[in-house]
Structure formats: structure tokens, C-alpha cells
Amino acid sequence: xxxxxxxxxxxxxxxxxxxxxxxxxxxxxxxxxxxxxxxxxxxxxxxxxxxxxxxxxxxxxxxxxxxxxxxxxxxxxxxxxxxxxxxxxxxxxxxxxxxx
Length: 100
Hints:
The protein is α+β, with helices and mostly antiparallel strands. It has helices at about 10-15, 50-60, 70-80, 85-95; strands at about 20-25, 35-40, 45-50. The protein is globular and about 40 Å long. It starts with 10 loop residues before the first helix and ends in a 6-residue tail after the last helix.
């Protein structure tokens, strides 16, 4: 599925479903970082390539923040706008936000 075909959930819904975004080492590739998205139930939902997110941040107005806390907050905000629907379908059904 291409990025253009991927459906993302609304930002407001993502804020309810996402419990944490953690920067972690890629399991199979050394020197590669991923941003793993966890639900409020601590279940892994999906992950994003950290370099891709930071590059996207750099291309936006204001660029990448110099402060680590600001950078993490901006990365999480960006990710919350890009949570794929397929990653949270079960949670959406449980919340009554999507019908099968």
C-alpha cells in the first residue's frame, strides 16, 4: 500500500488512542532508530522511521527544535497526524468509532 492510499485516523482520535511514542533501536538494523507508537493499553500499534520523521520536521516551518524536549513533542504531534487506520482498527471498534 502506498503512502497516498493509506488512511490515517483523525488527530483527535489518535490523541485518545496513543499512550506513548518511544524512540528505540531498530531490531534488525544497527544504527537505525524507530519511533514506536504504543496505545493507552501499552500495546504496540505501529512504528515510524525516526530519520523520516526528523526530515519531515526539518521541512516544516520552524524546522527541528534545538531543545530535546521540544523536538520530542514536535515529533509526537507529527506522528499523531499520521497514525494509520489499519494499526488501530480493533481499538476503533472497541471504542465504537468504527463499525465492521
